[in-house]
Every structure is written in C-alpha cells, then in structure tokens.
Amino acid sequence: MRSLSAFSEDSSRVDSKEGKPHRNQRIRRPLGLLTGLVLAAAAHTAVAQTPSKPAAKADPAFAAWVSELRREALGKGISNATLDSALTGITPIERIIELDRRQPEFTQTFWRYLDLRVSETRITRGKALLVQHADLLKAIEQKYRVQPRFLVAFWGLESNFGDHFGGYPVVQAVATLAYDPRRSRFFRSQLFDALRILDRGDITAQQMRGSWAGAMGHLQFIPSTFVQYAVDEDGDGRRDIWNSLPDVFASAANYLSQIGWRGGETWGREVKLPDGFDVQLASLRTKKPLGEWQALGVRRIDGQPLPTTDIAGSIILPQGHQGPAFVVYNNFRRILNWNRSILYAVSVGHLSDRLVGAGPLQSVRPASEKPLSRDMIREMQEHLAARGFDVGTPDGVVGPMTRAGLRAFQKSVQLPPDGFPTFDLLTRLRDG
C-alpha cells in the first residue's frame, strides 16, 4: 500500500525447518528459497532502495523539530527510553527527499507490468512455498478466511517472498518525510506509530528497517497499518513481520479480513467482450450481477458462459479497449485497498491463479507497445485543453479529469470512449 506496500530492496532468505509446528516457524536468517535471486519485478525500483548516508552537517532547525516532536511523543505516552533509542542523533536522509520528488519518466504498459511481476520464476517459487508452508497457511485460512494462494501472491509481489525488505532505518526515513513539508502531516502520524511499535517491544530501532517510505517486512506494512492490524500469531509477545512467518501471514490475513475479504470468492476472471460493447460500462463504478453481463454478451475468455452464481462484478480494461478485459469482484476491490493500482490488483489476482495451476492470460498481445512519457501525457493534455476539453492543469499525470477529457474527445471523433491514453491518440491530436 502505498497504503500497505512500498519499495524495497535488501536481499534475505527463508531458513525454516520442515516439520516444525507453525507457531515456531521463525525466520532465523534473511529470507528466500533461492539465495541471491533478485527479480527485476520484485525490486520495484531498485535504485530507490540503496540507503544513502545522512546529511553530513547537523541541521539546527531539524534538531529543534525533533525536540518538539519528542515532547509531543511523551504526551502520547511513548517512553523516554524508546525516544532515546529511536531519535538520538538522527538526521534527515537527503536521498529520501530525492526519491519522494522523483516521478517515473514513462508509464508502464499492462503487459510489461504483468511480465515483471508474474514471471515463470516467481510462479515456480510461489508454488513451492505454498507446499512448504501448507500447514501454516491452512491454519491461517481457517482462522481468518483468506485463501493461501492470495497471501503467497501478495508476499511475492511485495518483497519477492522476503528477499527485499528495504535497507532504510524506518524511524529516520519517516522522520525525514515528516520534517519535509510536502506530506508532513501523513508522515508525522506514521512516525508516531513507528515509535509506538518500538515502545511496545515488537522490534528494536536498529532492527526496524524498511523502504525509503517506511514500509516494513515481508508484506511491506506502513507503521499505521502495523499498529492497527499486525498480529502476534506465534504467541511470543511480539508482532514480528520481519522474522516470523506466522505473524506475517496472520497480519496480512487479519488486514484483509477486517476490510471485507470474502474467503469463498475469487478476485475476477479474464473475459471476452462482444463486438460493439459499450466501453463506457467498463468502470469500477458500474456493478452488475454476472447474469446481466451475460445478457450483454460478456463471456469467459474461451467463449463459454459466465458462471451462474449470485455475484456482482465490474468490467475493467487496464490497457484500454484494445487490451485484455476482466470482470472483477469484491476481493479485487479489497486488493485495491492494499495498493490502489489496477495493474497491481490484476497482478496479484493473476499470480494467485497461476500458483494453483491456471494458465497465462489468453488475450492476444500487441506486436509492440509504446509507453507514453510524462512529457507526452502533458502534451496530450495540452492538445485536449486547446480543443476545449477540460483536463485540469496539464501535469503529465493521467487522472480522472484527463480520462474524462479523453473520453469526450474519443466520442467526438467516433472512437470507443475508453479514456485510455495511447500513442495513436497523441498522434491524432498532433495532426489536428
């Protein structure tokens, strides 16, 4: 999440012993079944994860800020001992501000995104982990009603099954972002929660390491998510999402269960849309029972009827009308609570399917894909604005106003109004 997840990069590997009861299944060494395996897909933004040295010179303003923060923390019941261990001598990490300001130059196409995250290597490894931890995962499912395949899929995408936690000291990273004015309120709250975690004794300040944005452990919980949902499943008195797989899986399952995960349902499925399908119906805002989608001509990807079950779904087109189509259910929306990215949610769902034997997606891939840069998106927004379509301030980011403007333009030129930016649309706008 950017609610739960963030970027991470330190290598680690699992060292668990077969046959041990799951309550004692603790990780004694850095994690991973395949030592040294580093997937580009799991690294997310590898360059973003190498910690830099703190600023060399002391900042009197930061020191005063820390003193004031310390007084407030004491008022919230956090002990002097915890504050001493966590705050003494810390300085802002300049590299974190650079990373927070950095924007990706290019958008990532659906197929590129999926290939990086649902690779054959990750599928094979995830299947092995499902078997290795079957007893533990089954116990977690019985207690929290979250299927093992989804927990392992989240695990794979968030940290490559524990290979990449992130190498930044969490308190120092979050303090850096709390001190910076851009998102100070949010990260100040995260900093107090990180201090509460330390004060409770779940982890030490030295051991609490994570991403540059403060996401932690196998499933990259931010501090506030940890405080609200982390679980001491192994009964040792600590909620340890770094070293205890029972705590890791139970914490993730507890979070999903609390936000409305349905244990008897899947996430969605790839579908085939009929010719002439109204792409304006393809939206998470539009929910219909499967019977109604069936009546509109929507079929399974192999052409067979949709399931005859009492469940509502939405149609999504993550690569526009020329890409694959999916009907998605309640659990897909819960994945979006974890990370508000359609591509991420499809990747989690598809990986979970592949872990239990499903095949690859069946939609035809384009011969080539051309990602759009932020400058190209900004240019598209400027062209749309010049033609009278309201897209807000051109900023190179595709948000709701840009999509609405694109749909209006597509309608005006008799194109399917999917609101999806493509190089062909940019070329058409350039040509006038």
Explain what you see.
The structure is a single chain. Helices cover 44% and strands 5% of the residues. With 432 residues, it is mainly α. The protein has a domain at 374-431. A 5-stranded antiparallel sheet has the order 4-6-7-3-5. Strands 1-2 form a two-stranded antiparallel ribbon. α6 (120-132) crosses α8 (148-159), α9 (170-179) packs antiparallel against α10 (184-200) and α10 crosses α11 (223-229).
**Count of helical regions:** 18
Q: Give average pLDDT, whole number.
A: 88
The residue fraction in helices comes out at 40-55%
Intertermini distance: 40 Å
Helical/strand content category: mainly alpha
Mind summarizing the main beta sheet?
A: 5 strands, antiparallel
Q: What is the overall silhouette?
A: globular
Taking Cα atoms only, what radius of gyration do you get, to the nearest Å?
23 Å
Main β-sheet, spatial strand arrangement: 4-6-7-3-5
* Portion in beta strands: 5-15%
H-E order: HHHHHHHHEHHEHHEEHEEEHHHHH
What is the β-strand count? 7
**What are the segments in which pLDDT stays under 50 over at least 5 consecutive residues?**
2-24, 26-50
Kindly list the characteristics that best describe this protein.
5-stranded antiparallel beta sheet, two-stranded antiparallel ribbon, mainly alpha, disordered N terminus
In short:
This protein is mostly helical and 432 residues long. The protein has helices at residues 40-43, 60-75, 80-87, 94-101, 110-117, 120-132, 134-144, 148-159, 170-179, 184-200, 223-229, 245-258, 290-295, 330-338, 342-355, 374-386, 400-412, 423-431, and strands spanning 168-169, 209-210, 268-272, 288-289, 299-300, 312-316, 325-328. A hairpin with an 8-residue loop joins strand 6 and strand 7.
